Amino acid sequence: MYLYHHFLATSWFILHLSSIVLIVGYLLSIFMALLVISENRSPSKTLAYLLMFFALPYIGVVIYFIFGENYRKKKIYKKKWLTDQQSSERFGNYMVRLSEEVLASHVDTIKGNAQLVRLLVNDSKLPISVNNKVTVLHNGEEKFPAVIAALENARHHIHIEYYIFEEGKIADAIRDILIRKSREGVEVRNMYDDFGSTLGKDYLESLEQAGVQASPFYKVYFHLLANRNNYRDHRKIIIVDGITAFTGGINISDKYDNSIPKPGHLYWRDTHLRIEGDSVKLFQYLFLLNWNFCCDEEIDLAGGYFPDYTGNGRQLVQVAYSGPDSDRASIMLSYFAAINNSREYVYI
């Protein structure tokens, strides 16, 4: 009889304990589900995590905290986020006010795009600027000669930030200019993504020996085992003397230049921009934030990196940016807003 009662008591305890564990597990899953939904992930990734949380209540949470991208991203970029937040709070209100002044004085030019302008200002705290001259460059055949010409004319500094920086004829030509300019006293900083770029030891040493500061964005030590490939820097920016900037879709690689013979090469179509004017200051600001994060170097912002533009450009430019530390997909949202605001056509 004693054994029978002991068995019943034990069974009751196990049954209730199992129920409690299950309830707590599902409550934890609900909490994690709300957390993931609030992080604005892609729908497919969000759905995958939700299924995992409820199919494997405890195991799913453990898997998320080990492999969840946004959890690890917050740890990796905490210092950069704090720096960016401080800069944003310092200049944010000024940027908003400056953009509102431009909107008010260029109503006819901006027309129905004021909502898109305000979206980007609120997201990025970067204003729309007026005094700019923009040149559209088609393919590498137009981009690289323009870049080389600008680098040759550098007098104070050259700042480079690229996702793909691949050795070849183009990269060799740029390296030769950077080395020569550095020896002439021009400050040269080259920031390349360590996963997207394929710069060898000899290439990097030749730059460093000439005084060029070359630094990887978020060093990857074992590429085959790397689990942080989504935290990459996909920007393609060159800034020369704080006056001229290049940005767009074309990386530094021979494959983007159709004039360079390559066996089995398909025609590569892409677009880049050459920009002169006040908006270059915004590219400079973004570059320096990333450079300070990668190199832990506090560059003196009064050191000639933000000169006044004295040209006669009159085009409006607003910079949309995002990165692996961004909480919102500002560029994607701006695409949606632009498409939604379309009145005559949409070309994709």
The tally of helices reads 12
The CATH class of the largest domain is identified as Alpha Beta
Structural class: alpha+beta
Helix content: 40-55%
Tally of discrete structural domains: 2
CATH superfamily of the largest domain: Endonuclease Chain A
CATH architecture of the largest domain: 2-Layer Sandwich
Distance between the termini: 80 Å
Low-confidence stretches: 2-8
Number of distinct beta strands: 9
Strand order across the biggest sheet?
Answer: 2-8-7-6-3-4-5
Largest sheet: 7 strands, mixed
Residue fraction in strands: 5-15%
Question: In CATH terms, what is the fold-level topology of the largest domain?
Answer: Endonuclease, Chain A
Shape assignment = globular
State Rg: 26 Å
Q: Provide the succession of SSEs.
A: HHHHHHHEEHEHEHEEEEHEH
Let me know the average pLDDT: 81
Structure notes:
The chain has helices at 2-38, 43-55, 57-67, 69-76, 78-105, 107-110, 114-124, 139-152, 169-183, 201-209, 280-295, 330-340; strands spanning 128-129, 132-138, 157-162, 187-193, 213-217, 236-240, 244-248, 271-277, 317-318. The chain is 51% helix and 13% strand. Helix 2 crosses helix 3. The protein is of the alpha+beta class and 348 residues long. The strands form two sheets. The protein has a seven-stranded mixed sheet, with helices on both faces. Strands 1-9 form a two-stranded antiparallel sheet. The longest helix has 37 residues, at 2-38. The protein contains twelve helices and nine strands. The radius of gyration is 26 Å and the shape is globular. It folds into two domains: 2-67; 131-315, Endonuclease, Chain A (2-Layer Sandwich). The N and C termini lie far apart (80 Å). Strand 6 (236-240) and strand 7 form a beta hairpin. The model is unreliable at 2-8 (pLDDT under 50).
